[in-house]
Amino acid sequence: MLVKNSETDDTENDVEKMLEKLQEIKDQEGIIGYILRGPKKASIDLKDPKKIIDYAVLSSAAFDASNNMTETLQMGEVNKIVVESEETKLLSMNINNHRLSIFMEKSVDHNKLYRNLK
Amino acid sequence: MNRDPYAIALNSALTEIKKAYPDITHSFIFTKNGTIITGDQETDEKTMNNVLESFENLKEKTKTIGNLKSFSITAKNGKLTLSNINDMHLLLATSKNADKNHIYAITHVIIPTILKTLETFAPTPLQVTPQKKLVVDTLSGFFAGDSVQIDVEILNDWTKNNDPRSRVKAAITGEQNMQESIDQVHIETFGGNSTLCKVKEINDQNLKGKNMIRIPEKLCRTLDINKGDLVKVKPAL
Fold first, then answer.
1. Which residues of A touch B (CB under 8 A)?
2. What CATH fold (topology level) applies to the domain A2-117?
3. Contact, A98 vs A18, CB < 8 A?
4. What does each of the 237 residues of chain B score in pLDDT, given as a tens digit?
5. Neighbour count for residue B231 (Cβ, 10 Å)
6. Domain residue ranges of chain A, discontinuous segments joined by +
7. Chain B residues within 8 Å of chain A (Cβ atoms)
8. Is residue A23 classed as helix, strand or coil in its secondary structure?
9. Contact A51 B64 (CB under 8 A)
10. DSSP β-ladder status, B68-75 and A88-95
11. Which residue among B51, B64, B70 places its CB closest to the CB of A72?
12. Which among A50, A72, A91, A115 is the top mutation candidate for probing chain B, defined by the most B β-carbons within 10 Å of its own β-carbon?
Protein backbone atom coordinates (compact mmCIF):
# COMPACT_ATOMS: atom_id res chain seq x y z
CA MET A 1 0.00 0.00 0.00
CA LEU A 2 1.39 3.41 -0.92
CA VAL A 3 0.24 6.51 0.93
CA LYS A 4 1.18 10.05 -0.12
CA ASN A 5 0.48 12.35 2.78
CA SER A 6 0.67 15.56 0.85
CA GLU A 7 1.17 16.67 -2.69
CA THR A 8 4.05 19.06 -3.17
CA ASP A 9 6.20 20.33 -5.98
CA ASP A 10 9.17 18.53 -4.55
CA THR A 11 10.47 16.73 -7.58
CA GLU A 12 14.16 16.72 -6.85
CA ASN A 13 16.01 14.15 -8.88
CA ASP A 14 17.74 12.71 -5.84
CA VAL A 15 14.47 11.99 -4.11
CA GLU A 16 12.96 10.49 -7.24
CA LYS A 17 15.99 8.27 -7.65
CA MET A 18 15.73 7.24 -4.03
CA LEU A 19 12.06 6.36 -4.45
CA GLU A 20 12.93 4.24 -7.46
CA LYS A 21 15.54 2.41 -5.42
CA LEU A 22 13.05 1.93 -2.61
CA GLN A 23 10.54 0.40 -5.01
CA GLU A 24 13.19 -2.13 -6.00
CA ILE A 25 14.20 -2.75 -2.38
CA LYS A 26 10.67 -3.35 -1.14
CA ASP A 27 10.28 -6.28 -3.54
CA GLN A 28 13.37 -7.99 -2.16
CA GLU A 29 12.93 -11.01 0.07
CA GLY A 30 12.65 -10.17 3.76
CA ILE A 31 11.74 -6.49 3.33
CA ILE A 32 8.72 -5.50 5.40
CA GLY A 33 8.44 -1.96 4.11
CA TYR A 34 9.69 1.56 4.43
CA ILE A 35 8.80 5.04 5.68
CA LEU A 36 10.31 8.05 3.94
CA ARG A 37 9.65 11.37 5.59
CA GLY A 38 10.69 14.65 4.01
CA PRO A 39 10.11 18.26 4.99
CA LYS A 40 6.87 18.41 3.01
CA LYS A 41 5.69 14.90 2.29
CA ALA A 42 5.93 11.34 3.49
CA SER A 43 5.79 8.04 1.63
CA ILE A 44 4.91 4.87 3.46
CA ASP A 45 4.91 1.42 1.96
CA LEU A 46 4.40 -1.45 4.39
CA LYS A 47 3.25 -5.00 3.75
CA ASP A 48 0.90 -4.82 6.73
CA PRO A 49 -0.96 -1.47 6.63
CA LYS A 50 -2.33 -2.05 10.14
CA LYS A 51 1.15 -1.42 11.50
CA ILE A 52 1.65 1.97 9.85
CA ILE A 53 1.15 3.98 13.03
CA ASP A 54 3.27 1.71 15.24
CA TYR A 55 6.10 1.65 12.72
CA ALA A 56 5.91 5.41 12.17
CA VAL A 57 6.14 5.97 15.93
CA LEU A 58 9.11 3.60 16.18
CA SER A 59 10.86 5.29 13.26
CA SER A 60 10.39 8.70 14.83
CA ALA A 61 11.53 7.41 18.25
CA ALA A 62 14.69 5.94 16.69
CA PHE A 63 15.65 9.30 15.18
CA ASP A 64 14.78 11.25 18.34
CA ALA A 65 16.68 8.90 20.65
CA SER A 66 19.69 8.80 18.34
CA ASN A 67 19.84 12.57 17.99
CA ASN A 68 19.66 12.98 21.78
CA MET A 69 22.35 10.38 22.38
CA THR A 70 24.78 11.68 19.76
CA GLU A 71 24.26 15.21 21.01
CA THR A 72 24.96 14.15 24.61
CA LEU A 73 28.04 12.19 23.58
CA GLN A 74 29.16 14.87 21.09
CA MET A 75 29.28 12.45 18.18
CA GLY A 76 27.94 14.76 15.51
CA GLU A 77 25.19 14.26 12.98
CA VAL A 78 23.49 10.84 12.78
CA ASN A 79 24.20 8.92 9.57
CA LYS A 80 22.80 5.46 10.23
CA ILE A 81 20.70 3.77 12.93
CA VAL A 82 20.15 0.04 13.29
CA VAL A 83 17.62 -1.38 15.77
CA GLU A 84 17.36 -5.16 16.06
CA SER A 85 14.79 -7.30 17.82
CA GLU A 86 14.63 -11.11 17.82
CA GLU A 87 13.18 -11.34 14.30
CA THR A 88 12.95 -7.84 12.87
CA LYS A 89 15.42 -5.12 12.06
CA LEU A 90 15.06 -1.41 11.43
CA LEU A 91 17.56 0.56 9.36
CA SER A 92 17.14 4.34 9.55
CA MET A 93 19.18 7.05 7.93
CA ASN A 94 19.20 10.71 7.05
CA ILE A 95 19.42 11.08 3.29
CA ASN A 96 18.87 14.14 1.09
CA ASN A 97 17.14 16.01 3.90
CA HIS A 98 14.77 13.05 4.33
CA ARG A 99 14.40 10.55 7.15
CA LEU A 100 14.27 7.02 5.79
CA SER A 101 13.38 3.91 7.81
CA ILE A 102 13.39 0.45 6.27
CA PHE A 103 11.87 -2.46 8.20
CA MET A 104 13.15 -5.93 7.37
CA GLU A 105 13.57 -9.45 8.61
CA LYS A 106 16.73 -10.06 10.59
CA SER A 107 18.33 -12.14 7.84
CA VAL A 108 18.50 -9.17 5.44
CA ASP A 109 21.93 -7.53 5.01
CA HIS A 110 21.21 -3.96 6.12
CA ASN A 111 24.75 -2.80 5.30
CA LYS A 112 24.17 -3.73 1.67
CA LEU A 113 20.93 -1.71 1.64
CA TYR A 114 22.70 1.23 3.25
CA ARG A 115 25.48 1.20 0.66
CA ASN A 116 22.90 0.99 -2.12
CA LEU A 117 20.98 3.99 -0.82
CA LYS A 118 23.83 6.30 0.19
CA MET B 1 25.84 4.36 40.55
CA ASN B 2 26.10 1.08 42.33
CA ARG B 3 29.06 0.87 44.71
CA ASP B 4 29.09 -2.81 45.63
CA PRO B 5 32.22 -4.89 44.89
CA TYR B 6 30.65 -6.25 41.71
CA ALA B 7 30.06 -2.76 40.32
CA ILE B 8 33.49 -1.54 41.41
CA ALA B 9 35.11 -4.50 39.63
CA LEU B 10 33.14 -3.75 36.49
CA ASN B 11 34.10 -0.09 36.73
CA SER B 12 37.77 -1.05 36.84
CA ALA B 13 37.27 -3.42 33.92
CA LEU B 14 35.63 -0.73 31.78
CA THR B 15 38.32 1.79 32.67
CA GLU B 16 41.10 -0.65 31.78
CA ILE B 17 39.38 -1.61 28.52
CA LYS B 18 39.15 2.07 27.65
CA LYS B 19 42.88 2.45 28.27
CA ALA B 20 43.65 -0.57 26.10
CA TYR B 21 41.32 0.58 23.31
CA PRO B 22 41.71 4.37 22.99
CA ASP B 23 39.01 4.36 20.30
CA ILE B 24 36.43 3.87 23.06
CA THR B 25 35.20 7.28 24.16
CA HIS B 26 32.43 6.25 26.60
CA SER B 27 31.30 2.96 28.08
CA PHE B 28 28.77 2.02 30.69
CA ILE B 29 26.61 -0.87 31.82
CA PHE B 30 23.00 -0.75 32.97
CA THR B 31 20.30 -3.27 33.80
CA LYS B 32 17.28 -4.02 31.65
CA ASN B 33 15.11 -2.11 34.11
CA GLY B 34 17.20 1.02 33.57
CA THR B 35 19.52 1.09 36.58
CA ILE B 36 23.09 2.15 35.86
CA ILE B 37 25.58 -0.33 37.30
CA THR B 38 28.75 1.46 36.37
CA GLY B 39 30.64 3.31 33.67
CA ASP B 40 34.21 4.17 32.81
CA GLN B 41 35.73 6.83 35.02
CA GLU B 42 35.64 9.57 32.39
CA THR B 43 31.90 9.36 31.71
CA ASP B 44 29.92 11.35 34.25
CA GLU B 45 26.59 10.24 35.70
CA LYS B 46 24.62 13.04 34.03
CA THR B 47 25.81 11.92 30.59
CA MET B 48 24.90 8.32 31.37
CA ASN B 49 21.44 9.34 32.64
CA ASN B 50 20.74 11.41 29.52
CA VAL B 51 21.70 8.55 27.21
CA LEU B 52 19.80 6.05 29.31
CA GLU B 53 16.64 8.16 29.25
CA SER B 54 16.75 8.36 25.44
CA PHE B 55 17.38 4.65 25.21
CA GLU B 56 14.48 3.80 27.54
CA ASN B 57 12.13 5.89 25.38
CA LEU B 58 13.26 4.00 22.29
CA LYS B 59 13.08 0.61 24.00
CA GLU B 60 9.44 1.22 24.87
CA LYS B 61 8.57 1.92 21.22
CA THR B 62 10.65 -1.02 19.97
CA LYS B 63 8.11 -3.44 21.48
CA THR B 64 6.29 -3.02 18.15
CA ILE B 65 8.90 -5.28 16.54
CA GLY B 66 9.69 -7.42 19.61
CA ASN B 67 12.22 -7.25 22.41
CA LEU B 68 15.23 -5.11 21.63
CA LYS B 69 18.38 -7.16 21.02
CA SER B 70 20.86 -4.59 19.83
CA PHE B 71 21.07 -0.99 18.75
CA SER B 72 23.73 1.01 16.95
CA ILE B 73 24.21 4.51 15.65
CA THR B 74 26.81 5.56 13.12
CA ALA B 75 27.35 9.29 13.43
CA LYS B 76 29.63 11.81 11.78
CA ASN B 77 32.28 11.58 14.51
CA GLY B 78 31.80 8.12 15.93
CA LYS B 79 29.76 5.05 16.53
CA LEU B 80 27.55 4.00 19.41
CA THR B 81 26.83 0.33 20.03
CA LEU B 82 24.42 -1.09 22.55
CA SER B 83 24.60 -4.81 23.22
CA ASN B 84 22.61 -7.21 25.37
CA ILE B 85 24.80 -9.16 27.77
CA ASN B 86 22.98 -11.56 30.09
CA ASP B 87 20.45 -9.37 31.93
CA MET B 88 22.30 -6.17 31.16
CA HIS B 89 23.02 -3.67 28.42
CA LEU B 90 26.52 -2.52 27.53
CA LEU B 91 26.84 0.81 25.77
CA LEU B 92 30.03 1.62 23.92
CA ALA B 93 30.72 4.88 22.14
CA THR B 94 33.74 4.75 19.88
CA SER B 95 35.56 6.95 17.46
CA LYS B 96 34.64 6.76 13.80
CA ASN B 97 37.53 4.52 12.81
CA ALA B 98 37.30 2.03 15.67
CA ASP B 99 38.20 -1.52 14.68
CA LYS B 100 35.02 -3.59 14.31
CA ASN B 101 36.82 -6.72 15.45
CA HIS B 102 37.95 -5.05 18.66
CA ILE B 103 34.42 -3.86 19.39
CA TYR B 104 33.06 -7.35 18.69
CA ALA B 105 35.68 -8.86 21.01
CA ILE B 106 34.73 -6.44 23.79
CA THR B 107 30.95 -6.87 23.50
CA HIS B 108 30.89 -10.60 22.79
CA VAL B 109 33.94 -11.99 24.58
CA ILE B 110 35.63 -9.73 27.11
CA ILE B 111 32.69 -8.20 28.98
CA PRO B 112 30.57 -11.40 29.04
CA THR B 113 33.60 -13.28 30.40
CA ILE B 114 34.18 -10.64 33.08
CA LEU B 115 30.50 -10.73 34.08
CA LYS B 116 30.52 -14.50 34.26
CA THR B 117 33.70 -14.52 36.32
CA LEU B 118 32.36 -11.88 38.70
CA GLU B 119 29.12 -13.80 39.19
CA THR B 120 31.18 -16.83 40.14
CA PHE B 121 33.71 -15.19 42.42
CA ALA B 122 32.28 -11.92 43.72
CA PRO B 123 31.70 -12.16 47.50
CA THR B 124 28.37 -10.41 47.13
CA PRO B 125 26.12 -10.59 44.11
CA LEU B 126 25.10 -7.58 42.12
CA GLN B 127 22.81 -5.49 44.24
CA VAL B 128 20.48 -3.51 42.06
CA THR B 129 18.43 -0.81 43.67
CA PRO B 130 15.85 0.08 41.05
CA GLN B 131 15.27 3.77 41.52
CA LYS B 132 11.95 5.17 40.36
CA LYS B 133 11.00 8.70 39.42
CA LEU B 134 7.61 9.43 40.99
CA VAL B 135 5.28 12.41 40.99
CA VAL B 136 4.63 14.03 44.36
CA ASP B 137 1.14 14.29 45.80
CA THR B 138 0.75 15.85 49.21
CA LEU B 139 -0.89 14.13 52.15
CA SER B 140 -2.60 16.49 54.54
CA GLY B 141 -4.93 16.35 57.48
CA PHE B 142 -5.00 14.76 60.90
CA PHE B 143 -4.34 11.23 59.60
CA ALA B 144 -1.48 12.14 57.28
CA GLY B 145 1.01 10.48 59.63
CA ASP B 146 4.71 10.33 58.88
CA SER B 147 4.74 7.59 56.23
CA VAL B 148 4.77 8.11 52.49
CA GLN B 149 2.47 6.10 50.24
CA ILE B 150 3.46 4.33 47.00
CA ASP B 151 1.64 2.03 44.58
CA VAL B 152 1.57 -1.57 45.73
CA GLU B 153 2.81 -2.67 42.25
CA ILE B 154 5.99 -0.64 42.71
CA LEU B 155 6.54 -2.08 46.19
CA ASN B 156 6.00 -5.60 44.84
CA ASP B 157 8.40 -4.93 41.99
CA TRP B 158 11.08 -3.89 44.46
CA THR B 159 10.61 -6.97 46.60
CA LYS B 160 11.28 -9.34 43.70
CA ASN B 161 14.71 -10.78 44.11
CA ASN B 162 17.07 -9.83 41.27
CA ASP B 163 19.93 -12.09 42.25
CA PRO B 164 20.24 -14.79 39.54
CA ARG B 165 21.66 -17.30 42.01
CA SER B 166 18.65 -16.80 44.30
CA ARG B 167 16.35 -17.27 41.32
CA VAL B 168 18.04 -20.59 40.48
CA LYS B 169 17.85 -21.66 44.13
CA ALA B 170 14.19 -20.74 44.25
CA ALA B 171 13.53 -22.73 41.08
CA ILE B 172 15.27 -25.79 42.55
CA THR B 173 13.80 -25.64 46.03
CA GLY B 174 10.40 -24.34 45.00
CA GLU B 175 10.66 -21.60 47.60
CA GLN B 176 9.21 -18.23 46.77
CA ASN B 177 11.89 -15.96 45.35
CA MET B 178 11.03 -12.85 47.33
CA GLN B 179 12.85 -10.56 49.68
CA GLU B 180 11.25 -9.17 52.79
CA SER B 181 8.69 -6.43 52.33
CA ILE B 182 9.82 -2.83 51.96
CA ASP B 183 9.34 -0.82 55.16
CA GLN B 184 11.37 2.26 54.29
CA VAL B 185 12.27 4.19 51.16
CA HIS B 186 14.97 6.68 50.33
CA ILE B 187 13.62 9.84 48.69
CA GLU B 188 15.87 12.24 46.83
CA THR B 189 14.71 15.49 45.28
CA PHE B 190 16.18 17.01 42.15
CA GLY B 191 17.27 19.90 44.34
CA GLY B 192 19.59 17.54 46.18
CA ASN B 193 17.60 17.04 49.42
CA SER B 194 17.05 13.51 50.62
CA THR B 195 15.49 11.55 53.45
CA LEU B 196 14.67 8.07 54.60
CA CYS B 197 11.08 7.44 55.66
CA LYS B 198 8.51 4.74 56.28
CA VAL B 199 6.38 3.60 53.38
CA LYS B 200 2.88 2.18 52.97
CA GLU B 201 0.85 1.33 49.92
CA ILE B 202 -1.49 3.95 48.48
CA ASN B 203 -4.93 3.42 49.98
CA ASP B 204 -6.91 5.76 47.72
CA GLN B 205 -8.20 3.69 44.77
CA ASN B 206 -8.37 6.77 42.52
CA LEU B 207 -4.66 7.46 42.94
CA LYS B 208 -3.40 3.95 42.18
CA GLY B 209 -1.38 3.25 39.02
CA LYS B 210 -0.44 6.89 38.49
CA ASN B 211 3.29 6.64 39.21
CA MET B 212 2.75 8.76 42.29
CA ILE B 213 4.21 9.12 45.75
CA ARG B 214 2.02 10.66 48.47
CA ILE B 215 4.16 12.58 50.94
CA PRO B 216 2.94 14.23 54.17
CA GLU B 217 2.89 18.03 53.85
CA LYS B 218 5.35 18.48 56.68
CA LEU B 219 7.89 16.24 54.93
CA CYS B 220 7.28 18.08 51.64
CA ARG B 221 8.23 21.32 53.34
CA THR B 222 11.37 19.72 54.79
CA LEU B 223 12.40 18.43 51.37
CA ASP B 224 11.41 21.71 49.71
CA ILE B 225 9.10 20.06 47.19
CA ASN B 226 5.55 20.67 46.02
CA LYS B 227 2.69 18.69 44.57
CA GLY B 228 3.53 17.69 40.97
CA ASP B 229 7.31 17.68 41.46
CA LEU B 230 9.35 14.63 40.48
CA VAL B 231 11.42 12.81 43.10
CA LYS B 232 13.76 9.84 42.91
CA VAL B 233 12.69 6.98 45.16
CA LYS B 234 14.40 3.70 45.94
CA PRO B 235 13.81 1.04 48.58
CA ALA B 236 15.91 1.00 51.72
CA LEU B 237 16.59 -2.75 51.77
1. 51, 54-55, 57-58, 61-62, 64-66, 68-70, 72-88, 90, 103
2. Beta-Lactamase (3.30.450)
3. yes
4. 555 677 788 888 888 888 888 899 999 898 887 888 888 888 888 899 899 999 988 998 998 899 888 899 999 999 999 988 877 889 999 998 888 888 888 888 888 888 888 777 655 555 555 788 898 999 887 777 889 999 888 888 787 655 444 443 444 344 444 455 788 899 988 888 889 999 998 878 788 778 889 999 989 999 999 998 989 898 886
5. 22
6. 2-117
7. 25-26, 47, 50-51, 53-55, 57-58, 60-62, 64-80, 93
8. helix
9. yes
10. unpaired
11. B51
12. A72
Inter-chain contact B77–A88, Cβ cutoff 8 Å? no
- Write down the pTM of the prediction: 0.66
CA distance A92 to chain B (A): 9
What are the structural domains of chain B?
Answer: 5-121 (3.30.450.30), 132-235 (2.40.40.20)
Does the beta-carbon distance from A76 to B75 stay under 8 Å? yes
Shortest Cα distance from A8 to chain B (angstroms)?
30
ipTM of this complex? 0.87
